[in-house]
Amino acid sequence: MSKPIWIKHAAQLATLASEGKGPRSKEAMSELGLIEDGSIWIEEGMIKAVGTTNELEERYADRVNEAEVVDATDHLVTPGLVDPHTHVVYGGSREREFEMRLEGASYMDIMNAGGGIHATTRMTREALEEELIEQTTLRLDSFLAHGVTTVEGKSGYGMNLETELKQLRVMKKLQEQHAIDLVPTFMGAHAVPAEYKGREDEFVDQLINEMLPVVAEEKLAEFNDVFCEKGVFTPEQTERILDAGKRFGLIPKIHADEIESYGGAELAAKIGSISAEHLLKASDAGIKAMAKAGTIACLLPATALYLREEAAAGRKMIDEGVAVAISTDCNPGSSPTTSMPLVMNLACISMRLTPAEALTAATYNAACAINREEKVGSLEVGKQADIVLWNVKNYQELQYLFGVNHVKAVWKKGVKVV
Ligand code: NIG
Ligand code: FE
């Protein structure tokens, strides 16, 4: 039995206590469940008690000597951050495209000329499994260093059975080897591979008939995601792929309305997708439909910044009643970053979320977007002890001092990993 850990005297403990109520919207996004002079008791990797330091001192009076004590005086303590949307497993890198975009080429021009997602697909097809594990491990280490303890990861740089499986198996191995919790999504429909150009529907058939059954059989993914975008997959093709995935028990997600308004938000609401991602160009009707259906908006302000596009209408979505989560979108093209703290800053600066809303979007709502809210995303009794101690006094300061990593320490399942 490992020693209990007692974190005490936190200037501010943001518990995000939610009592299993599910995705937060409107005013509930601002309720952080703050405790001043806060305290947490951890045993066997789980949270056993949360309260003020006085309360826990009384409750554990006969055991305080057993515990490893962490003095959090003057510091903010939050749940481990959750990143609900990444493409973290990939080969190679695309710094030359960054340069090309600054010289005037657009993201879609580069992709249509065989670069972009296609370039990373070639490099990922060529990479050995061990190489992908090595490169992804470095990125996961960096996530942890930025206070992120749970990460969703998508396949989609294979777009053939062999490499899609390779990416998903890499995630499965990393889930066993790495401290981070990795949540796998199948995204064979990330683009139409070059060899299927002009035969898009044939690729969709192949994905449905040959890839999905194997992914499901080997239990390699929980979610199924499609890049629904003009020139990539139509809403009709997206619906076919996601319906087929549902029959295999995969929960739908959609990369929706990123580059052009294309009915992606409406589709996500219609088919009961757990979330819709990006949404830079989501229509007003789409936003209303998502609020009504309870579809979580997973917004990616670092991607918007990196593509030099206007960010999604996060403020408006919250005001309309959409539950908002945020994410890095970590990928080699449109958002090569692992910094969720930066994403929280940007959620405030470019989408006008308040500091409290941004924290909810990066913890509890992010956990809801990947079906993990019963285990992570808040500091509540019975949940995993995934905890961050920050070098700031309060949550406002966390969002205010921007572009800096304020992490002081991170515990994953009660083990100090940073
Ligand atoms: O979420 N938009 C599609 N997919 C990724 C980018 C992938 C890439 O450029 O490699 C995204 O932004
Ligand atoms: Fe993405």
Automatic annotation (TrEMBL):
<feature type="binding site">
    <location>
        <position position="87"/>
    </location>
    <ligand>
        <name>Fe(3+)</name>
    </ligand>
</feature>
<feature type="binding site">
    <location>
        <position position="157"/>
    </location>
    <ligand>
        <name>4-imidazolone-5-propanoate</name>
    </ligand>
</feature>
<feature type="binding site">
    <location>
        <position position="331"/>
    </location>
    <ligand>
        <name>N-formimidoyl-L-glutamate</name>
    </ligand>
</feature>
<feature type="binding site">
    <location>
        <position position="94"/>
    </location>
    <ligand>
        <name>4-imidazolone-5-propanoate</name>
    </ligand>
</feature>
<dbReference type="GO" id="GO:0005737">
    <property type="term" value="C:cytoplasm"/>
</dbReference>
<keyword id="KW-0963">Cytoplasm</keyword>
<feature type="binding site">
    <location>
        <position position="333"/>
    </location>
    <ligand>
        <name>N-formimidoyl-L-glutamate</name>
    </ligand>
</feature>
<protein>
    <recommendedName>
        <fullName>Imidazolonepropionase</fullName>
        <ecNumber>3.5.2.7</ecNumber>
    </recommendedName>
</protein>
<dbReference type="GO" id="GO:0050480">
    <property type="term" value="F:imidazolonepropionase activity"/>
</dbReference>
<dbReference type="GO" id="GO:0005506">
    <property type="term" value="F:iron ion binding"/>
</dbReference>
<comment type="function">
    <text>Catalyzes the hydrolytic cleavage of the carbon-nitrogen bond in imidazolone-5-propanoate to yield N-formimidoyl-L-glutamate. It is the third step in the universal histidine degradation pathway.</text>
</comment>
<keyword id="KW-0408">Iron</keyword>
<feature type="binding site">
    <location>
        <position position="255"/>
    </location>
    <ligand>
        <name>Zn(2+)</name>
    </ligand>
</feature>
<feature type="binding site">
    <location>
        <position position="85"/>
    </location>
    <ligand>
        <name>Zn(2+)</name>
    </ligand>
</feature>
<feature type="binding site">
    <location>
        <position position="85"/>
    </location>
    <ligand>
        <name>Fe(3+)</name>
    </ligand>
</feature>
<keyword id="KW-0862">Zinc</keyword>
<keyword id="KW-0378">Hydrolase</keyword>
<comment type="pathway">
    <text>Amino-acid degradation; L-histidine degradation into L-glutamate; N-formimidoyl-L-glutamate from L-histidine: step 3/3.</text>
</comment>
<feature type="binding site">
    <location>
        <position position="255"/>
    </location>
    <ligand>
        <name>Fe(3+)</name>
    </ligand>
</feature>
<feature type="binding site">
    <location>
        <position position="87"/>
    </location>
    <ligand>
        <name>Zn(2+)</name>
    </ligand>
</feature>
<feature type="binding site">
    <location>
        <position position="157"/>
    </location>
    <ligand>
        <name>N-formimidoyl-L-glutamate</name>
    </ligand>
</feature>
<feature type="binding site">
    <location>
        <position position="329"/>
    </location>
    <ligand>
        <name>Fe(3+)</name>
    </ligand>
</feature>
<dbReference type="InterPro" id="IPR011059">
    <property type="entry name" value="Metal-dep_hydrolase_composite"/>
</dbReference>
<dbReference type="InterPro" id="IPR006680">
    <property type="entry name" value="Amidohydro-rel"/>
</dbReference>
<keyword id="KW-0369">Histidine metabolism</keyword>
<keyword id="KW-0479">Metal-binding</keyword>
<dbReference type="GO" id="GO:0008270">
    <property type="term" value="F:zinc ion binding"/>
</dbReference>
<feature type="domain" description="Amidohydrolase-related">
    <location>
        <begin position="76"/>
        <end position="415"/>
    </location>
</feature>
<dbReference type="InterPro" id="IPR005920">
    <property type="entry name" value="HutI"/>
</dbReference>
<feature type="binding site">
    <location>
        <position position="190"/>
    </location>
    <ligand>
        <name>4-imidazolone-5-propanoate</name>
    </ligand>
</feature>
<feature type="binding site">
    <location>
        <position position="329"/>
    </location>
    <ligand>
        <name>Zn(2+)</name>
    </ligand>
</feature>
<dbReference type="InterPro" id="IPR032466">
    <property type="entry name" value="Metal_Hydrolase"/>
</dbReference>
<comment type="similarity">
    <text>Belongs to the metallo-dependent hydrolases superfamily. HutI family.</text>
</comment>
<feature type="binding site">
    <location>
        <position position="258"/>
    </location>
    <ligand>
        <name>4-imidazolone-5-propanoate</name>
    </ligand>
</feature>
<dbReference type="GO" id="GO:0019557">
    <property type="term" value="P:L-histidine catabolic process to glutamate and formate"/>
</dbReference>
<feature type="binding site">
    <location>
        <position position="334"/>
    </location>
    <ligand>
        <name>4-imidazolone-5-propanoate</name>
    </ligand>
</feature>
<dbReference type="Pfam" id="PF01979">
    <property type="entry name" value="Amidohydro_1"/>
</dbReference>
<dbReference type="GO" id="GO:0019556">
    <property type="term" value="P:L-histidine catabolic process to glutamate and formamide"/>
</dbReference>
